[in-house]
Structures are given as C-alpha cells and as structure tokens.
Amino acid sequence: MSDVRARKNLLLILVILLILLITSSPSLLADEISLKNGDRLTGTIIKSDAKTLVIKTETAGDVIVQWPAVDAISSTQPLHVGVAGGQVLVGAVSTTDGQIHIATQAAGAVTVPKASVQFIRSDAEQAAYDAATERLQHPHLTDFWSGTLDTGLSLTNGNSSILSFTLSGRATRETDRDKISAYATSIYGRNGNTSPAQTIANQTQGGIRVDVNLGPRAFAFGSADFNTNKLQNLDLQNVIAGGVGYHVVKTANTSFDVFGGAAFNQEFFAAYTLPNPIPPPATLSFAAVTQRNAELLAGEQFDTKLGGRTTLGESFTIFPNISGPSGYHFNFNSTASTTLRKWLGWQVTFTDLFLSNPPFGIKRNDLLLSTGLRLAFGKAAQ
Prior knowledge:
Elements: H1 2-24, E1 31-35, E2 40-48, E3 52-57, E4 61-66, E5 70-74, E6 79-83, E7 88-96, E8 99-104, E9 108-113, E10 117-121, H2 123-137, E11 145-155, E12 162-174, E13 178-191, E14 198-213, E15 218-229, E16 234-250, E17 254-269, E18 272-275, E19 283-286, E20 289-306, E21 310-320, E22 328-339, E23 344-355, E24 365-377
Antiparallel strand pairs: 1-2, 1-5, 2-3, 2-10, 3-4, 6-7, 6-10, 7-8, 8-9, 11-12, 11-24, 12-13, 13-14, 14-15, 15-16, 16-17, 17-20, 18-19, 20-21, 21-22, 22-23, 23-24
C-alpha cells in the first residue's frame, strides 16, 4: 500500500511540475519565426500576404516582417495556407530547407515550396476574411460607401465687400457587380459694394448614377441630374439618361471610361426682365419658358493617382439635341486633390456648364474655379 501511495504522490508531483513548466514557459505553446539574419520572434502568427508576415508578440505587440526575410516558421496553432492554384491547406506549419510543411487532418503532411505560398491566416483572420468575402458577394445597400466633402470660402471687406462660398459632396458605393455615385454642389456669391447687395452666384447641382457591370470591361448605366441657377433664371433642369460604356483602362491607379446613350432633358426658365438699351420702355420683359428635349449623349471619364498623395480626375459629357430646336449642352469637370492626412486634403476644382441656346440675354457658359479643404471618409480616406 505504501508503494502505491508513493507512486500516486510522485505522479501528482510530476503533473504539477508539468503544469508549472507549461504556464511559466508560454513560448512552448507559441508560434515561432526565424529570420535569415538569425533573429527569432515568438508569439502568435496572424497573417501573411506573401509580402509581409504579421506576428503578435507578448512584449512588442504586432510585429511586421518582410516575407522574403523569413527563414523558418513553426506554429502550434493550425494555420490556413493558400498556395498557387487556389488550394487552401489547414494545419500546423513547419519549414525545412525552403519547404513549407502543413500537418493537415484530411491529407496528412503536405509539403509545398515557400515560393508557392500566396497567404497565411490564423483561424480568426480566416473567419474575418470569409465574413468580408460573403459581405462583398451579398452586400447591403448601406455597405461600402466612401466619399469626399469639399469646401471653399473667399471673403473680402473694405474697399471691396465680396463673399463667395462653395460646398460640394460626393459619395460612392462600389462592389464587384455595380457602382452607385451621388453628388451635390452648391455655389453662392454676393457683392456687398452695391446697394442693395447683389447676388453674383447662386447655383445648386445634384445627381445620382448607377453603373452595372456587363462583363470585365463593359457596363450599363442610368443617371438623373438636377440643376438650378438663379442668375440664369433657371428654376430647374433635370436630365434623365441611360446607356452603355466601356472601361478602356482599369488598373489600381488609373481608369479611363467612355460611354454613350440617350437622355431626356427638361428646363424650366422663370420669367425675367432685362434693361432696354433703347428706352422706352426702361426694361424688356420675357415670359417663362419650358423646354423638353430628347438628346443623345457621349462622354468620357478619367481618374488617376500620382504617387501616394495626389489624384487627378476629369469628365466630359455632351448632349446633342435630337428633337425640337437644334442645340446642345455639355458638362466638363476636373479636380486635383492632394492628401494632407488620411482624412484631410486640399483640392482645386474647375467646372464648365455650357448651354448653346439659352433664353435671350442669358450667357451660355457658367464657369467655376474653386479651391479649399477636402474631407474624406471610407475607402477615399485610405
């Protein structure tokens, strides 16, 4: 009986010592990477994209190392390893002589060259990736929005008294299947040197466009645009349009699209008076005018990123009239923006809105040049 009791006590002591050894040596349960310069890091491997590897250490937090600098990996946790060809292997990972060994449950030990590894993810990272992929394939309308808000202000007081203010916003939601773009711009200017003060600019624009991909390059689109301009006596212009387009260039930093289609344009001009150069009477009066026209449309849009901080964008759309009086109108927009912070930038915008046959006495061109701060959110702030 004494021998049995002694064996039990010895076994209990050994179990306690083993527990103490494990808990006092967390590195025994940790992943480890060895670098080609001889350094070693222990912790929990988070992910790798075949360019860098992230390992969470106990003392330094997340540490990012260059993937080519990694000489060996040893993991105690199962990792998801994606290799060339699309196969994903799951299991504890080790390396020897530039070969990655994955101890899978289904196929046993599998060996692949380190150069063929496309990614490595922990269970938590893989779950987050799967959730993001599912969300991208079946997004809600509120998902994936990003955009910008531009402001510009000019104020003088003294020998001149002029106030000019612009506010412009744009929001975009883009998925693999479609793209929704919405925008709004408001411009206001006042000259205080006259009595009474004279409004020198008062215009508001807005619209929405939906693009649906028909293939890797082709797309269909529909849009609705609205415009009001008090100095043109334009109470409302709305243009409903649709057509097809093609991505001539579509890379990570540059895109160039061409598109064409048809549109229906409605313009409501208010009644107005003008000074008569040959009085009497002192003024000439003009009745309100409503114009409804079917139109064709053709246009292009170009966007590019220069370096890591500057973006350039430009678009041009022309609308030839195919019903009623002959004429056309076009919209030209260009913007240059430089990032100051991830969410803050400085922008310069130029816009030309042209109408070939406005009512008598009203100029055909409305030009806008503005500059000011740009606030960004979502993908636009990345």
